[in-house]
Each structure stands twice: as C-alpha cells, then as structure tokens.
Amino acid sequence: MRAVVLGSPTSWYLSDLRRAAGDAYDLQSAPFSRIASAIGVGGVGVASGESPLSDADAVLVRTMPPGSLEQVVFRMDALAQLEAAGVVVMNPARAIEAAVDKYLATARLHAVGLPTPTTHACQTVDDAMTAFDALGGRAVLKPIFGGEGRGVTLLDDAAMARRAFALLEQLGAVILLQEFVPSDAARGAVDYRLLVIGDRVLGIKRVSDGDWRTNVSLGGRAEPLEVTGELAELAHRAAAAVGAPLAGIDVLPARDGRRLVLEVNAVPGWRALTRVTGVDVARLVLELLKQKVVA
C-alpha cells in the first residue's frame, strides 16, 4: 500500500507512523500548503509538491493548518476529487469539514440524539449578550474553528463578555457560546478522550487540578480509563454523526450524571493515549487505512 501523510515532515505523528509501517507500507509525507490540481484531457490530477496524490492508494490527513477561506475550501475540494478518483482519504473531506466546524458538529450530534451542552451561535454583540443571559451569565466562548483548547475562554462577567463579543464582531467572527457544565471532579476538571479507530474504541481520562480545561497541551495529565460499553457506543455514534472512521471524541462526565459529547476531532492525536494505554495506535491506524483500501 502506498500512502501519503498530509502533515508536517517533522511531526511526531509521522515518525510514529513510519515506525509502525516498517517495510510493510510505502509511506510518504506531503504538506497541505503545496497541494495543486490540474484538470485537462487526462482528467483531474491532484499533487502536493513532487508527490502525485492521485496515484496513491490512500491519503491520511494528519493536520489542518490555518489558511484563507479560499485555501481551506480548495484543500477540501482537492481531497474530495481524490475520493472521487478512488483514492482512500481518511478522514473524508466531508467528515473533516463537519468536525472542524463546532457549530455544525454540535448540530450533527444533536440531530442523532447525543447529549451536548446548550449551544448558541450568533454574529452580533446584542444577540451574544442575549445568549449569555440565557446561559445564566456564565458561558464558555469558543472559536468556531480550532482545537487543543486554543482560544477557549470562560466568561462569567457581563462587562467582560460584552467587550469580548464586540471585538469578535469587529473581526467578523461567529460568536459561539456553550453552557458551562461542571465536571464530575472533586477539584479542577476531568473529561474523557475517546479514540475511534474503525470498530475499536480506546480512551484516556484527562485531569486538571488547576484549570477547568483538561487539554494535555495546556497542562492537564492523562490517566487510564476503562472504556465501558456505554462510552464505546457514545463514541461510535459521535464519529458516525460526522462520518469519520478515525475520530477523537471529547466526553464530559457532568456532575449531574450526564455524559455530554463536547467535540469530535477528525484529525485526532494519540500521543498521550499511546503512552497511557501502551497500545500501538499508529499500527491500528495503518491497519484501518489498509482495510479501507482493500474493501
């Protein structure tokens, strides 16, 4: 199987995938920034630099770098063209588009009956203040695009909220607010990161003693987690809601007993999960990719 990994050539994940691939897979890397396409008599060709993606058996998306609206739309269009040509793309463009958009992902989760925090999305200061009041004057402000906790802020002061909303309105941003739900932790915060790899679900518990956010990148720590049948079903349903065979699912065990799905990540990491569980996640990812190719 010849597979191209779209991502940084210096990333830990590429190194881990190459270690797991050994001599069994022809694994190459290519950057999103050099994706180009040619449409002509021979059909539609997609490449990244010197790597002809159209000739690959599979393309594994390992990053979603920022870019202009035109660049992001073109990149997703190019991935869709690869899929149309019979190249296995994981995750598919439609899944990435749905998961990276927190408003759309939450709507998809809600549509299939999965529990999510109450969410408001709007574009003006006045509408945002109305939503802030409806959420009890305490809400989590999130960028509609983004990950690893970047840009996520807890607002519990009306004056500060109005200033934040005014800045976002000036920037032409969408204002996304969610209810703040205390986690089931004696102090700090706790949540679950579940990793769906085809039919399999792995998981870790993320704990933070000094912050309401649990992201390992922000200082949280990863601990073992027993993935019950209930959690596995929740994870599979969330991944299916956005159409991602490989997905990271963030679940909040709320203090009131609910299990809320916070986010679906269609370009999930597994470094902490590998360390805690001892499972060779990279090998499982490559096996899933191969299954998609031979199916």
Q: Please, could you describe this protein's structure?
A:
It is built from nine helices and 15 strands. Helix 1 packs across helix 9 and helix 5 packs antiparallel against helix 6 (about 160-170). The chain is α+β, with helices and mostly antiparallel strands. The mean pLDDT is about 90. The chain has a five-stranded antiparallel sheet. Strands 2-1-5-6 form a four-stranded parallel sheet, with helices on both faces. A four-stranded antiparallel sheet has the order 7-10-8-9, with helices on both faces. The longest helix is centred in the N-terminal third of the chain and has 16 residues, at about 70-85. Strand 3 (about 35-40) and strand 4 (about 45-50) form a beta hairpin.
Write the layout of secondary structure elements.
Elements: E1 2-6, H1 12-21, E2 26-30, E3 35-40, E4 43-48, E5 58-61, H2 69-84, E6 88-90, H3 93-100, H4 102-111, E7 119-122, H5 125-134, E8 139-142, E9 153-155, H6 158-170, E10 175-179, E11 189-197, E12 200-208, E13 221-224, H7 229-242, E14 246-253, E15 259-265, H8 271-277, H9 281-294
Parallel strand pairs: 1-2, 1-5, 5-6
Antiparallel strand pairs: 3-4, 7-10, 8-9, 8-10, 11-12, 11-14, 12-13, 14-15
